[in-house]
Amino acid sequence: MLAAGDQFSRIMIYIKEFLSFDSFWDVAKAVIDVAIISFLFYRIICALKDSRAFQLIKGILLILLTAVLALLLRLPTLTFIIRAFLNVLPVLFVIMFQPEIRRWLEGIGNSNIKGIFTMAGRSHNEAVDSVINEVASAVTAMSRERVGALIVFERSTSLGEIVRTGTVVDANTSSQLLRLIFIPNTPLHDGAVVIRDGKIHAAACYLPLSPNNSLDKDLGTRHRAGIGVTENTDCVSVIVSEETGNISLAQGGELQRGISREMLVRLLREALYKKEEKKKGVSRREK
Question: Side by side, which strands form the sheet with 167-172?
Answer without folding.
Answer: 167-172, 199-205, 192-196, 149-153, 236-240, 247-251, 254-256
